[in-house]
Amino acid sequence: MSSFVDLLNKISEEINLIVGITFFFLGLIGNLLNIFIFSPILKTELFPPNPSRLYILTGSIANTIFIIYLLLTRILISGFSMPLTNTITFICKTRFYIGQVCMYTSLYTTCLATIDQYFLTNRSVGIRRLSRLSFAKILLFSLLSLWILMNVPILFIYNLYPKNNGISTVCTVYSPIWTFYYTYIQSLMFLCIIPLVILIVFGFLIKFNLESVRQLHPSIIRQMTRMILFQSIVMSISLLIATTQIIYQEITKNISKDLLRSSQENLFNTIANLLTYVNYIGSFYIYFYSSKSIRRNIRNLLFNRTMDSSTHTTRDQTTLHELRNQIQPTLGNIREEK
Fold first, then answer.
1. Are 243 and 188 in contact (CB under 8 A)?
2. Are 102 and 70 a contacting pair, CB within 8 Å?
3. In angstroms, what is the C-alpha Rg of the chain?
4. Which pLDDT tens digit goes with each residue over 2-38?
5. Cα dist from 20 to 24, 26, 90, 228, 278, whole Å
6. Tens digits of per-residue pLDDT, 301-312?
7. How confident is the model at residue 147 (pLDDT cuts 50, 70, 90)?
8. Beta-bridge partner residues of 170
9. What residues does 161 pair with on adjacent strands?
10. 159 near 92, Cβ under 8 Å?
11. Residue 132 pLDDT more than 80?
């Protein structure tokens, strides 16, 4: 029995080390490429300034911070047995705080980008007018301030407490109120159900909008729908796993567990925790897989070729030019997603 327990623990350590390091480099490269593509650094017409570009850029910055701090410390803690959170008060407090702020930023900037695409693809001039960069900046600043402030209690209630052995310490919180709030309000509602509903509802609305605009090239409909559905599926699976894990831990925290069950749960938690990181490493690869124009222009960047911003037929360009003349917020994202 003890050898099997040791095997499970060894597997958990290896998974943390190998998968964690792989995720770290994939996520860091992917998000840095997102920042490069969606920021003003890239002086091309591939992604003109608009709210969706701002949301994706902000989300990519949050993902980068999440990966550098959260994932890297996890690799050190689980893969190299360095008890950083259980021995250093600063990491104990800030790791969870920064993680929460980055999670809210990443998830809800994706939701905001999806809603903005609904505005941009709508036939109604009045609804398209809602896609304004000035409004997006104010909204994003307000939400970032909210997410930063609403998680401030973490910095006070999380601390190092002595274990039963009286020698080592553990980073935790002893507050039933916070535990209930975090498990059922933050994790279940704000970080799972609400983002999922937004992504699914507005994903179908975008599909309906694009199908109703017959002048647009059919490939735009296919690629936009694929991007929304793929991102929704990946995010749904990741969020459901994370929420299930948190609720299970809360339900079973007072149950006496033997070494075998503890090692089995440790393996499950290791896999579940790493799968939740897919949200923060996968956006670039979803965009790359779903969009021919992104793939083409990434190849152009890698081989130092001229960026190709002409992604439509003459008929498509004329249609989009007429729509752009009706209202200032452009259909830039649609134009480029062919």
1. yes
2. yes
3. 22
4. 788 888 888 888 888 898 899 999 999 999 988 887 8
5. 6, 10, 23, 26, 11
6. 666 665 555 444
7. very high
8. 161
9. 170
10. yes
11. yes
SS (HEC) of the chain: CHHHHHHHHHHHHHHHHHHHHHHHHHHHHHHHHHHHHHCCCCCCCCCCCCHHHHHHHHHHHHHHHHHHHHHHHHHHHHHCCCCHHHHCHHHHHHHHHHHHHHHHHHHHHHHHHHHHHHHHHCCCHHHHCCCCHHHHHHHHHHHHHHHHHHCCCHHHHCEEEECCCCCCEEEECCCHHHHHHHHHHHHHHHHHHHHHHHHHHHHHHHHHHHHHCCCCCHHHHHHHHHHHHHHHHHHHHHHHHHHHHHHHHHHHCCCCCCHHHHHHHHHHHHHHHHHHCHHHHCHHHHHHHHCHHHHHHHHHHHCCCCCCCCCCCHHHHHHHHHHHHHCCCCCHHHHHCC
Query: Which two tokens mark 208?
Result: 């309906």
Q: How far is residue 333's CA from residue 312's CA, in Å, rounded to a whole number?
A: 13
- Amino acid 286: pLDDT: 87
**Token pair in block for residue 232:** 């929704």
The pLDDT, as a whole number, for residue 328 is 41
Both tokens of 144, joined, read: 């970032």
Task: Specify the higher pLDDT residue, 66 or 214.
Answer: 66
Among all chains, which residue has been given the structure tokens 């009286």? 166
Answer yes or no: are the C-beta atoms of 231 and 286 closer than 8 Å. yes
Q: Tell me which amino acid residue 24 is.
A: F
pLDDT in tens, 317-327: 444 444 444 44
According to the model, what pLDDT value does residue 306 have? 58
